[in-house]
Amino acid sequence: MADTPKRIPFYAIRLADLLDRPDMALVAECWRCGHAARLDPVALAAARGENESLRWLEPKLRCKACGSRAALFRIEYADEAEQGTKKPPARQPGGS
Ligand SMILES: [Zn+2]
């Protein structure tokens, strides 16, 4: 089995892709003041259309904290945010 790459280039992602991936969280982070906010792909898709790609949405971002447009998208995995839910290791059927 080949390892699937964990990271997807965000510029290749459309909002529609995020709607299909509840395990991925879209975060906008301002590199000027460090303010970060999690965005709702559903609301974005409703406002912009779900075929809009992140590379086009990014220049339209505006930081709510400092008003800067120097904000960038970041994709996080929901798994990393919820570290409390660890899956138990798969059990090997033990034959005797
Ligand atoms: Zn800011």
Order of helices and strands: HEEHHEH
Strand segment tally: 3
Helical segment count: 4
Largest sheet: 3 strands, antiparallel
Average pLDDT works out at: 81
- The secondary-structure class comes to alpha+beta
What would you call the shape? elongated
What is the count of distinct domains?
A: 1
Bound heterogens, unique: zinc ion
The N- and C-terminal alpha carbons lie at a distance of: 28 Å
Q: Walk across the major sheet and give the strand order.
A: 2-1-3
DSSP strand content: 15-25%
Roughly what percent helix?
A: 10-25%
Report the radius of gyration as a whole number of Å.
17 Å
Low-confidence stretches: none
What features would you describe in this structure?
The protein is of the alpha+beta class. The protein has one domain (10-79). It contains four helices and three strands. The protein has helices at residues 15-19, 41-48, 54-57, 78-81, and strands at 24-30, 36-39, 71-77. It has a three-stranded antiparallel beta sheet with strand order 2-1-3. β1 (24-30) and β2 form a beta hairpin. It is elongated and about 65 Å long. 9% of the residues are buried. The mean pLDDT is 81. The structure holds zinc ion (ZN). Residues 30, 32-33, 35, 63, 65-66, 68 line the site of zinc ion.
